[in-house]
Amino acid sequence: MLLDEGSLRRLEMSVPASIQALLAARLDQLDAPERIVGERASVEGMVFHRGAVLELCGGALHEALDPQLGSLLRRELILPDRGIFADDEAFRFRHLLIREAAYQAMPKQLRAQLHERFADWLERTAGDRIQEHEEILAYHLERAYQYRAELAPPRTHEQELARRATQRLAAAARRATARIDLTAAANLLGRATTLATRDEPIYPQLLWGARRDAEPAGR
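RESULT FIELD:
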């Protein structure tokens, strides 16, 4: 209710067990294809694109995607929305907690795979405009790496994910610095520093940049 009224604005929250159980039970009542579509959609975020869901669902649900989206609309779990790509249909979850329940229903290994696949989709779809969406791209690469690192020691593939995320975070930080948004720049560089290994050539630059942008004004 606080979120709906605009009195509370948070990106992440701890869902009370009773509400979480209620939402999980409602999602469990969906047919398997509906549930899969809802879970895949939750990977992109509160607002999601049909093209992204199509990519994340794989071949099995390609022909059935539109009927499943229609069913979720009728159940009022999702609503039409305006996306960032004019030529792609977009939707949003009716409530943040519905999106969170769908997302949390998936195991971490699957989340890692889907975040990586979404990043690849976004990179292809954005094309020459990828810089406009670089922070989003970096976030999904970051999540893909972090989930994998939680499950097993990072290997070559995970290190490549971290490297890609680091590069995107660093580029987004440079643009934030250029527009004099030092708080955002420090946050982005701090995240990049966490992902980069100390032997990478970019590491000293990231560390110095994060400390510089975190300095209070006038020092």
